[in-house]
Design brief:
Elements lengths: L11 H12 L2 H32 L6 E6 L2 H10 L6 H7 L4 E7 L2 H12 L5 E7 L12 E11 L2 E13 H14 L7 H30 L5
Parallel strand pairs: 2-5
Antiparallel strand pairs: 1-2, 3-4, 4-5
Helix pairs in contact: 1-3, 6-7
This protein binds guanosine-5'-triphosphate (GTP) and magnesium ion (MG).
The site of guanosine-5'-triphosphate (GTP) has 9 residues, from α6.
Length: about 220
């Protein structure tokens, strides 16, 4: 369904109140449990790939995995902002980032291989793929985002859940965490200047990632630098 995505004025009080009441409902609690199960499924798949690939290539394709469930306030805030009715059904239908996983790799090439190996598994359905590495955001943000559909197997049968998986290098993650901190800081004196510097850092880090990849290839082939 297409909702009017123009920014709406939403008060913090309204968000808190709605989040509090919906998060107490059995339907919401159940849905969050299902998302937690979906995260476990994807995490296991990634750990299996890591174990197998590290045997084959003698290095870990990813450094770490982080996961999170979006908190009720953030869910409600986003739904109100997008004009989505605040019901558990609409939440599951319309929200794509309640279950989130972040995979942090040393090398860009590993990140693409892992993403591909995960997305092509029999029980995984790739709903969307946004490559902000090939096409960085204007601010310099780089990551590969996959939206996956994954079945979880319950007492009552199979249920399909959506999980957003972000793949980044350590350098991209470092940049995104600084960018994220600055976004929430309301008292920056010269935000344009900061944005400009961040963009330069993003491009520098991307060059560094490319050079690290070259070094890795040289080491792997036992050749000369
Ligand atoms: P929302 O941004 O969640 O409304 O969804 P979208 O459809 O615009 O998805 P998008 O792929 O743009 O971003 C989803 C997620 O990627 C965000 O929740 C962040 O975790 C991350 N992300 C996207 N852009 C940026 C950015 O400029 N800086 C940082 N630090 N993270 C970003
Ligand atoms: Mg966005």
């Amino acid at each position: 369904m297409d909702y009017n995505s123009s920014t709406r004025e939403v008060s913090q009080e309204q968000v808190e109140e709605l989040a509090k009441s919906i998060s107490r409902t059995p339907g919401f609690i159940r849905l969050m449990t299902y998302y937690r199960c979906a995260i476990m499924e994807i995490q296991t798949k990634l750990n299996v790939l890591n174990a197998e690939l590290s045997l084959q290539y003698d290095r870990n394709p990813f450094e770490s995995i982080e996961s999170r469930l979006k908190n009720p306030e953030s869910i409600v805030e986003k739904m109100l902002r997008k004009g989505i009715p605040i019901t558990v059904e609409d939440m599951e239908q319309e929200m794509t980032d309640i279950a989130g996983i972040r995979v942090i790799c040393s090398f860009q090439e590993d990140l693409y291989s892992l993403a591909e190996l995960l997305a092509e598994q029999d029980d995984v359905l790739l709903l969307s793929r946004k490559d902000y590495i090939a096409n960085p955001k204007p601010n310099g943000y780089r990551s590969l985002h996959l939206l996956l559909d994954i079945p979880i197997f319950l007492y009552q049968g199979k249920r399909h859940m959506k999980v957003e998986v972000q793949f980044r290098t350590i350098a991209m993650d470092f940049w995104a965490s600084v960018d994220h901190k600055l976004k929430y800081k309301k008292t920056i004196r010269d935000p344009e200047k900061v944005a400009e510097k961040l963009k330069i850092c993003a491009d520098t880090l991307a060059k560094m990632d490319a050079e690290m990849e070259e070094i890795r290839k040289t080491i792997d082939s036992n050749g000369e630098l």
